[in-house]
Design a protein that fits this description.
This protein has 176 residues and is an alpha+beta fold. The chain is built from three helices and eight strands; from the N terminus they run E-E-E-E-H-E-H-E-H-E-E. The protein folds into two domains: 33 residues, no CATH class; 135 residues, 2-Layer Sandwich (Tetrahydropterin Synthase, Chain A).
Length: 176
């Protein structure tokens, strides 16, 4: 029996082939010696916020044509889901890439408290003067979290910010 096993490393997908020989598996791994096995650890948090999509340089009609009901003068709200992923190798002392309790505390203190039950266009200082799209919000969240991840992990770094605006619409940002 031959099985393919896939694993991820340094933005590439590698594979190994498993050969079944008399009740034991021999693994032949085709990868380079510099390959590190990255582990991706994610924490999900929730917040509610209102916003409107509106370009002040455009007419009311143009805004409605482009943004539809999201340009509503009286705002509209979402139940956002935020997923923050840290990648790295486990700390040999703890086995953790990042302590999820510390990650949760960081996300709540630095992001959720600024956003929950707020109007993104009016109440959130880091969104002032910016289009309150989910794309912009994800980038701004990255800017807040990226420098603050390093103090809570020895061997990890921020990998992505995924922000669900609805159960079917989300943005994922990798800091690029």
């Amino acid at each position: 029996m031959i099985m393919m096993i896939y694993f991820r490393g340094k933005n590439k997908l590698f594979s190994s082939i498993c050969f079944h020989k008399s009740n034991r598996l021999d693994f032949t791994i085709f990868a380079f010696s510099f390959l590190k096995n990255m582990i991706y650890v994610s924490r999900q948090e929730h917040f509610n916020a209102a916003h409107k999509l509106y370009n002040p340089a455009w007419s009311k009609e143009k805004n409605f044509e482009v943004f539809g009901p999201c340009a509503n003068e009286n705002w509209h709200g979402h139940n956002f889901e935020l997923i923050v992923t840290v990648k790295g190798t486990p700390d040999p002392d703890t086995g953790f890439v990042v302590d999820l309790k510390k990650l949760s505390t960081l996300i709540r203190a630095e992001v959720i408290e600024q956003l929950d039950h707020k109007n993104l266009n009016v109440d959130v200082p880091f969104m002032k003067g910016k289009m309150a799209s989910t794309e912009t919000l994800a980038k701004e969240i990255w800017k807040i979290l990226e420098p603050k991840i390093q103090p809570i992990t020895r061997f990890g770094k921020l990998h992505s910010v995924k922000l669900y605006e609805t159960p079917r619409n989300y943005v994922e940002y990798f800091g690029e």
